[in-house]
Amino acid sequence: MTFIMANRSVVVFDLGGVLIDWNPRHLYRKLFDGDEAAMEDFLANVCTASWNSQQDAGRTFAEACASLKSEHPSHAELIDAWIERQPEMVAGAIAGTVEILAALRARRVPLYALSNWSAETFPIVLKRFEFLHWFQGIVLSGEVRLLKPDPRIFHLFLKTHGIDPAEAVYIDDLKANVEAATALGMQGILFTDPASLRSELVKLRLLDAARDPVARIEHAAAWVGDLERARAFYERWFKATAGPMYSSAKRDFKSYFLSLGPGSRLELMKSPEEASRPAHLAISVGSRAAVDRLVKEMEAAGVRIVSAARITGDGHYEAVIADTEGNLLEITS
Known about the structure:
With 333 residues, this protein is α/β, with parallel strands linked by helices. It folds into three domains: 2-19 and 94-211, HAD superfamily/HAD-like (Rossmann fold), CATH 3.40.50.1000; 22-90, no CATH class; 216-332, 2,3-Dihydroxybiphenyl 1,2-Dioxygenase, domain 1 (Roll). It contains 13 helices and 17 strands. β5, α7 (122-128) and β6 form a beta-alpha-beta unit. It is globular.
């Protein structure tokens, strides 16, 4: 969804929810052993979005956690986990958007980021994701102590980097932020999924429609006997970057996602029920709606649907089908 039209040559990205899959539920699903109702109650009444936004605006986590624990002493450990286990809130990069970022970079489009993010926790993702170093400039709410959609942070961003709003595209997953950017003369794009974003950028002639992918391999996966040894192998020899370890609350299963460059990931998995071997391919089709549509068409054509589309324990939307040889394929958004 876009607002206004003009000639645009600069692209500005929000980070969380657009390029980085940050969500406290990735961590708290584990801490609440899969009890969704209890987790949602905690996030609605204890570690709330408004409480976290104060850290995005510059308050330290030491002060924030101390204050909140005085109000909710029975939740002290869960409150401390917010900062102590912050990396586990990041499931990984939103690979389809990173591919778009890479395509824009290849075309030498000036790239910037404007994000509501704590200055205290941003170094964690800056170290983890190489693509964050592709930006010519980044303005963080936690550093300037202003939060989107406050127009002042947009004015500050534009002034700091000498950007004419009439030349800029701004991408965010929150409508209020997009509307604030649009009011200042930027081209606003409300992010919903990578496929839709790519279409909008094609309309603006910032990307080439002829190069649009229909689907792509999102990741490959393998069962391993020694999870830590396997992780260390790929980190040493292929310079892979491992995300936080995922541990299922429902069964004896652990895994790491390893990033090997923009959009390339390997999942290493361990379970006493599985022997070491290649496991599956995951193919991304761009959105949840595309997953549902494709699986419905496959089912009608007689393709075996191993499991219907669902949100997994680590927050991914996927269905599992079998190809003509019985190989498992995860169809993901």
